[in-house]
């Protein structure tokens, strides 16, 4: 009998495979696809395979899986060999197809090979990850799509390895150590670190011994050198020791963690991490000794983004350190010292949580006086933006309004997120203070000619117009009409802005 055409008319749907009530008959689902004849489905698959190389690869791998894992592995190996041998740059015109093909390679390993032979799948994934640098150097991955494929492969390695029996998972982790040594910039150190919490004690012991041998075998670079081989050696040395630290954490060995931290960062260990582990281990006195040691100086970069939220004065590490020392003092029952440190932490960082904790531990009837003293301190703080953020968040809007009016010249339009939030909070009861903040943002946007922010400036100006009737005479200078006239005079030729105001 001649074979039916792939385009044969659709047969009537048998009652057994009719889509459930409420399901759209044109939405692909197991129920709706079951209504199609095998020949029709074959035609659709062949048509898509002819048009889509990545889909064709998936179909070929599915067919190869019928022959066993070796057939699937052969398909993957051919593609990996091609990737390893390629040298040409992939321009933007070819990038999308290349990305799709790369993703299909990982999908084949995960959906076809891993279901048949997990060890073979792990071997191919590790080989795939080993070529990451070469691939990323050949393509402009501005969107991060290719990097995401390698991250998917890394996550799959951890998931598959963790599903092995404990001894096999430990042996697999051991096989990654030479790769960490050979490629300190690669992903294999992080892979082992992700595996460590999932390994049993026996596997951790063997892995730690192997790492210690690798550390001893490697030459630690001399201090102060900048030669490339020395930099690679130093990075390899640090990677191996960080993995050993994770093992020490998993085994609950605080002393080993501390010794390794001192080896990684001679003379400038992370005292916060050491103190935290000692406290958690019930060794509060030792934790206090560590947290009070001088910390390594770390520069803090103040970005436009940090200005935008008004947190340029925030030092996260300082807050973390003070909060941990307070916990340690409480554990040692040195409550007066802890209370004094809460106040100093609030004074230095304008930390609301520390102030709340300080007030909560005061005797009855003393908290009101201390609270007033705290607000006075906030109002006099050197960083007006930090002070405003504190008062708005607490909230103490009367004081926030007074701060805005008293320090009107200090507001930076770059801190737009803070100023917009504050203006919104102040507008109902303190329109003059809100108007100052809105004007500052408008002046910054138009003065800098930031056309992408013109819609925001137009919105702020409309808000100013709406609140103008509520402003008392002389409450703000210049008056609303004069301010608008000044904007016209200074920025009348910014033609992208004024139509937004009219509309």
UniProtKB/TrEMBL annotation:
<dbReference type="Pfam" id="PF21810">
    <property type="entry name" value="DUF6880"/>
</dbReference>
<protein>
    <recommendedName>
        <fullName>HEAT repeat domain-containing protein</fullName>
    </recommendedName>
</protein>
<feature type="region of interest" description="Disordered">
    <location>
        <begin position="1"/>
        <end position="32"/>
    </location>
</feature>
<dbReference type="InterPro" id="IPR049245">
    <property type="entry name" value="DUF6880"/>
</dbReference>
């Amino acid at each position: 009998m001649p074979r039916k055409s792939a385009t044969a008319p659709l047969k009537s749907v048998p009652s057994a495979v009719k889509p459930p009530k409420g399901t759209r008959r044109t939405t692909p689902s197991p129920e709706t696809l079951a209504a199609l004849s095998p020949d029709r489905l074959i035609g659709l698959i062949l048509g898509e395979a002819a048009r889509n190389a990545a889909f064709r690869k998936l179909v070929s791998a599915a067919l190869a899986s019928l022959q066993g894992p070796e057939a699937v592995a052969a398909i993957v190996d051919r593609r990996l060999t091609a990737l390893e041998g390629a040298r040409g740059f992939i321009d933007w015109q070819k990038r999308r197809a290349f990305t799709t093909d790369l993703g299909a390679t990982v999908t084949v390993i995960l959906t076809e090979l891993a279901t048949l032979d997990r060890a073979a799948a792990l071997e191919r994934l590790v080989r795939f990850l080993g070529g990451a640098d070469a691939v990323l150097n050949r393509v402009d991955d501005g969107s991060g799509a290719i990097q995401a494929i390698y991250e998917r492969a890394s996550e799959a390695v951890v998931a598959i390895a963790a599903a092995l029996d404990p001894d096999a998972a430990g042996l697999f982790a051991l096989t990654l150590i030479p790769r960490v040594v050979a490629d300190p910039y690669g992903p294999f150190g992080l892979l082992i670190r992700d595996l460590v919490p999932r390994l049993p004690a026996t596997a951790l012991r063997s892995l730690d011994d192997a790492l210690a041998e690798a550390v001893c075998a490697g030459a630690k670079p001399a201090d102060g050198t900048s030669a490339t081989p020395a930099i690679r050696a130093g990075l390899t040395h640090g990677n191996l020791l960080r993995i050993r630290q994770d093992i020490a954490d998993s085994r609950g060995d605080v002393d080993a963690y501390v010794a390794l931290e001192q080896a990684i960062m001679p003379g400038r260990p992370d005292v916060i991490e050491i103190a935290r582990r000692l406290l958690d281990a019930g060794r509060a006195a030792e934790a206090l000794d560590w947290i009070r040691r001088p910390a390594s100086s770390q520069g803090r970069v103040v970005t436009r983004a940090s200005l935008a939220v008004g947190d340029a004065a925030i030092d996260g590490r300082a807050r973390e350190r003070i909060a941990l020392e307070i916990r340690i003092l409480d554990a040692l029952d040195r409550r007066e010292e802890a209370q004094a440190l809460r106040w100093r932490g609030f004074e230095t960082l304008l930390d609301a949580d520390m102030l709340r904790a300080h007030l909560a531990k005061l005797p009855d009837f003393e908290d009101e006086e201390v609270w007033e003293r705290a607000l006075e301190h906030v109002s006099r703080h050197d960083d007006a933006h930090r002070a405003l953020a504190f008062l708005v968040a607490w909230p103490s809007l009367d004081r926030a309004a007074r701060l805005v009016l008293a320090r009107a010249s200090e507001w930076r339009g770059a801190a737009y997120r803070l100023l917009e939030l504050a203006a919104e909070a102040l507008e109902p009861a303190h329109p003059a203070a809100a108007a100052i903040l809105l004007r500052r943002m408008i002046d910054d946007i138009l003065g800098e000619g930031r056309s992408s922010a013109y819609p925001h400036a137009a919105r702020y100006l409309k808000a100013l117009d709406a609140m103008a009737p509520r402003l008392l005479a002389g409450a703000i200078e210049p008056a609303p009409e004069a301010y608008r006239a000044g904007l016209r005079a200074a920025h009348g030729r910014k033609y992208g802005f004024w139509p937004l105001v009219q509309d």
